[in-house]
Amino acid sequence: MKAFLKRLITPGSFASSIATLSSGTGLGQLIMFGSSPVLMRLYEPAVFGDLAILMSLTMIFSTIFTLRFEMAIPLPEKDEDAHELVSLSLIIVVALSSLTWLSLLLFQQKVLSTLNLETLGIWILILPVTIVNEAAINILGFWFIRRKKYMIVALSRTLNSGSMVVIQIVLAPLVLHGQTGLVVGFAAGQVIPLVYLLVKYIDSSVVLAWKNLTWRHFKGQISTYRQFPLFASWNAAFNTISRQIPPVIIAYFFSKELVGQYAIALRMLNMPFNLIGTAVGQVYYQRVSSLIRARDSIRKFTYSTMLKAGGVILFPLIAILFLG
């Protein structure tokens, strides 16, 4: 235990990095948990259903539209190549989201009726914006994970949850339509952490890299990391759809009130995974990327990470098994 605590407070250690990322996620989850009773008194369950569907669609398309090139950002040896992957990912997301916006503009009523989102109305057009915001936050997050700037990623997550909740609460008594406050709060809550990440990301080296970008650079990165859109994107798409599609299905066959209740319950159940699982995965990915660049074996580190993660999960499982 003493050795573990020592690693936990040692800057740059695996445990310390996980703790840093988890702190931002944990504080964000705490804000969401503490605000849930307040939001449930300000908004009707059906309104949460609208938001849950919009959030699900955002998560699905923001994952698919990057073609998973953002996962390649920690891999290159040179930062210039990583900058090119950041730019490539952002350009692809903006292009595909623009096509989505055009499609929604042309077939808005059809989409609303199919997804049982008639009450959302014109706010469905905000979906491409939330897709770009969510994807950009994720893309820039991988850049800072590459640079081991875990505190920046952690703070962005806290800003995301905190700003969204504050805006949703403030807008509740000011808007005529209930879903407007939740939807605007969701979209605006993304903007604040995105601006923070952009401010931290953009410096003279980034500007210089952008000035020197050409299609030849992008073509080279696409060729080098083509396995991500060819293979990883499919896995990510199916995985994300399996987790995010239930609200859409429930709304189609049942009611948005039930969707809202489901979304709130699922948010509570996902807290342990969001707190630990995501942080472990991202820190592990950065360390493995460093080992690959150094031409070292990742087997020993992978086994060690699996054992440590299993040990962390084991105690809560035993508690649930015996205490219910």
What is the typical, i.e. mean, pLDDT? 84
Backbone shape:
globular
Assign a percent range to the helix content.
Answer: over 70%
The low-confidence parts are none
Order of helices and strands: HHHHHHHHHHHHHHH
Quickly count the domains. Answer: 1
Could you provide a short overview of the structure?
By secondary structure, the protein is mainly alpha-helical.
What does this structure look like?
By secondary structure, the protein is mostly helical. The protein has one domain. It has 15 helices and no strands. Helix 2 runs parallel beside helix 7, helix 2 packs antiparallel against helix 14 (271-293) and helix 12 packs antiparallel against helix 13 (256-269). The radius of gyration is 21 Å and the shape is globular. The model has no long low-confidence stretch (mean pLDDT 84).
Please render the helix and strand layout as text.
Blueprint lengths: L1 H8 L4 H29 L2 H20 L14 H28 L1 H7 L12 H20 L3 H22 L6 H24 L2 H8 L3 H10 L2 H18 L1 H8 L2 H14 L1 H23 L5 H25 L1
Helix pairs in contact: 1-2, 2-7, 2-14, 3-6, 3-8, 3-11, 3-13, 4-6, 6-7, 6-8, 7-8, 12-13, 14-15
What distinguishing features does this structure have?
81% helix; 324 residues; mainly alpha
